[in-house]
Every structure is written in structure tokens, then in C-alpha cells.
TrEMBL record:
Protein name, UniProt field: Uracil phosphoribosyltransferase
The protein's Enzyme Commission number: 2.4.2.9
PANTHER family: BIFUNCTIONAL PROTEIN PYRR
Pfam hit, one: UPRTase
Source lineage: Bacteria, Pseudomonadati, Bacteroidota, Sphingobacteriia, Sphingobacteriales
Record keyword Ligase present: no
NCBIfam families: PRK00129.1
Phosphoribosyltransferase domain segment(s): 10-211
InterPro entries: PRTase-like, PRTase_dom, PyrR_bifunctional
UniProt keyword annotations, A-Z: Glycosyltransferase, Transferase
Enzyme class, first EC level, given as a word: transferase
A GO term, aspect molecular function: uracil phosphoribosyltransferase activity
Length: 214
């Protein structure tokens, strides 16, 4: 299942527009805020697919039968670029536990790269709904590696993947390797550069959010 935000008409597309705009990108606080707002939008959309239970709530005037989440999801992200997007999800799923993964592209001689994963901090994921957030889904290699590592460790009930921008190649890679995952994407771009950056994309989300790394 793939949800493509660009195929719908909503104010959320404004967040994507501003994330891409090289002039608006100069304001790193607004860039982070737009990722956060996008995360909140996706949380609302994902919430429609989750399981609910009925709970009687006592008001000052009586009792109301209310629909509440059967269980909170766990919100995961790949450091550092994914933090604002994860925060947007956490603003809505405000009782959720969180998982953090350190993974990055390790460039080798000749310009090729491998995905290096150094660190995972996570609650127990057995029987849980996992929502993995990362602003860019380029080759899809880091996403697949991180998700498979968690799947190998835990019996995850359901996997959702959230990205602001994805490439067609990245989507294909995720679907081939994580066929049960549900994808929630802001937009899907057709091209990538020789260094595997999405075109037109939006650039390096981590640098735009937190400053250029050295």
C-alpha cells in the first residue's frame, strides 16, 4: 500500500512546496517546522488505519462511549535528519514510545557507498505497530537495512514507513524487500544523481535542518 500525498489536494502539499524551495530553505527553523507539520499530517492519515477499542468515559453529565487507540505505535527514526518528522508524528501520537537508529552512507574509494549502522535505542517492539520516519527515501538501502534489523530482533505486528520525498527506485527497493510495509510519501520523484540524491528532491535534509556537516 502506498499513500502519495502529491496525488491529493490539501494544505499539506504546501509543506512539501516550501521544503523544496531553495529560498525558503535558507530558514532552517522553517524547514524543520515544515517537516514537523508534515509528520503530524501523516500521523493523522496513518491513525485511520489503526485498531481502536470502545471505552466508556465519564463526563460531568454522564457517560460517553468513545473510540480510542487499542495500542500506541512506536515511532522510529534514522538520525539526524528524521528528528523533525518524528517529532511531528509524536505531536499526534503523544503517548507513543520512540526508537532511534544511527545509520549513514559510508563513502568508499571511487565514490561508491555502503550503509553503516552504528547504534539502535528502542523499546520492546514485540506485537507493536512501528512507524519509521525518514525525510528522504532515495535508494531505500538504509531504510530496508534498519527495518530488517528491527524485524529480525522483534515480532513487529505492522510496519509503516513515512518519507517526505521518495525516488521511484527507493520505493521499488522497499517494496521488494519489505513487501508488507505501508508507505506514506509526500511525493515520488523519478530521477537520482550519480551520487544517489533525489532529483528534483530538496537537497540534504539533515544539512538543511541542522547545518552542514564536515
Amino acid at each position: 500500500m502506498i499513500f502519495d500525498l502529491s496525488k491529493t489536494k490539501s494544505i499539506a502539499n504546501t509543506f512539501i512546496t516550501e521544503l523544496r524551495d531553495e529560498n525558503i530553505q535558507k530558514d532552517s527553523m522553517r524547514f524543520r517546522k515544515n517537516l514537523e507539520r508534515l509528520g503530524g499530517f501523516f500521523a493523522y492519515e496513518i491513525s485511520k488505519s489503526l485498531k481502536y477499542t470502545t471505552k466508556d468515559i465519564t463526563t460531568p453529565l454522564g457517560v460517553s462511549a468513545c473510540e480510542v487507540l487499542a495500542q500506541q505505535p512506536v515511532l522510529a527514526t534514522i538520525l539526524r535528519a528524521g528528528l523533525p518528522l518524528q517529532q511531528g508524528l509524536l505531536n499526534i501520537f503523544d503517548r507513543a514510545e520512540c526508537c532511534f537508529i544511527s545509520a549513514y552512507r559510508k563513502v568508499e574509494k571511487g565514490g561508491d557507498f555502503v550503509i553503516q549502522m552504528d547504534y539502535i535505542s528502542t523499546p520492546d517492539l514485540d506485537g507493536k505497530v512501528l512507524i519509521m520516519a525518514d525525510p528522504m527515501l532515495a535508494t531505500g538501502q538504509s531504510m530496508v537495512m534498519c527495518c530488517k534489523e528491527l524485524i529480525n530482533r522483534y515480532k513487529i505486528e505492522e510496519l509503516h514507513i513515512v518519507a517526505a520525498i521518495a525516488s521511484t527506485e527507493g520505493v521499488a527497493h522497499v517494496r521488494a524487500n519489505l513487501p508488507k510495509a505501508k508507505l506514506w510519501l509526500g511525493a515520488i520523484d523519478e530521477e537520482m544523481t550519480s551520487k544517489s540524491y533525489i532529483v528534483p528532491g530538496l537537497g540534504d535534509a539533515g544539512d538543511l535542518a541542522y547545518g552542514e556537516k564536515v
